[in-house]
Amino acid sequence: MTLRSLFLALALASGAALAQDKAQTVRPEVGKPLQAAIDLLKQRKGREALAQARAAQAVPDKTPYETYLVTRVLGQAASAAGDNATAASALETAANSSAAPAADRLSLLAAAAGQYYALKQYSKATNVATTYFQHGGTDKSIRTIYVQSLYLGGNYGAAARELASDVEQETRAGKNPPEDQLQLLANAYLQSKDTAGYGRTVEQLLGLYPKREYWLSAIDNVIRRSGFNDRLQIDVFRLRSEVGGMQRGTDDYLDYAQLALIEGFPMEATRVIDKGYSAGLLGSGADAARHKRLKDLAAKNLADDRKAIAEAEKQDSSGKDAKTLFNEGFNLVLNDKSAKGLAMMEQGLKSAGNTASGFRRPDHAKLQLGYAYHLAGQNAKAAEMFKNVQGTDGAAALARLWVIRLSR
């Protein structure tokens, strides 16, 4: 119910109270201006109604019931006249009056909460909304006022808890939480410095409302979280490149290419550099010569790498240690030799698990194997592998983002 329709309903109820309540009486000197105010409210004449309500308020020695009715109509008239401060105070006072009928208390509290919210008095809006719920109120619009007042009032932790509860209830009911609700929850977590909660919520946003801005936020959150392992930086670039998230432009392409060369994957570096040139970010400007040197280095390394691959394919790979087998397999995948490359990576990961000299970071290897499956066009296997990645150093978080990406 909107505030306007709520106030009209209150005005009608006030008129009915004057006319029908046999147990309570209102003296003519109070009732006459009060009835005039109610009639003017029905005609949407707020300022005139407020003047009549103030006339009723000026009558001395009012009974508690008369005071309740006057205060109630005063609040309604003040709202119609645009005097939100008077309206909020009067409506709250009327709601808390001992003479207020239980049936009307919720409507008055709802109206008062809305007025305080409009005034940006968020602490008062929160308190009145709390009282509303304590009396059994269930209007979703008041729930919205309550949660947003917590957030806008700077109580980010409480806002996050309430929003998270709402999101959980909607999810359990099989409904998709609205995008703006998830955005507010993410911001509440961010403001309260809850990076884990923020990450979970951005992942929900990605799953339901995939946008580039959410990808950038999700990936940056992985990097910012405590315990992130810098060895995963190349995996970050792989995901960024996949989702169009190379937001630093030239620097991202250069850093990614250099990391790929350091890792011994010149084909990956060459592809990144080519993308940078195609995007117009490399090969021009003051650093064009530097870009050209990197491009030439990648081309030279790729030529040498292809010769090494050709020689390696003639040799028996059974004697190679697990890490060598795994890395050479990944390089084959990069060079469009997916069948053999994936088999080598799988064997390398399996062998590492059966020996004391296994990978120091097996979850990093699983993340890389998942990426290799994706490059080979085997996204179902990629998703399953990503789901097996664990740990708290960023690998599992990146893997979850890959699962979201592959599910779209």
Shape: elongated
Query: What pattern of helices and strands is seen along the backbone?
Result: HHHHHHHHHHHHHHHHHHHHH
Give the termini separation: 37 Å
Look at the helices and sheets and give the structural class: mainly alpha
How many distinct beta strands? 0
Number of helices: 21
Question: Unreliable runs, pLDDT <50, ≥5 residues?
Answer: 1-8
CA-atom Rg in angstroms: 33 Å
If you average the pLDDT, what whole number results?
A: 91
Largest sheet: none
Q: What proportion of the residues form beta strands (DSSP E)? A: under 5%
The helix content, as a percent range, equals over 70%
Your description of this structure?
- With about 400 residues, the protein is mainly alpha-helical.
- Among the domains are: about 5-120; about 155-210, no CATH class.
- About 75% of the residues lie in helices and about 0% in strands.
- The chain starts with a helix and ends with a helix.
- About 40% of the residues are buried.
- Mean pLDDT is about 90; it is low at about 1-10.
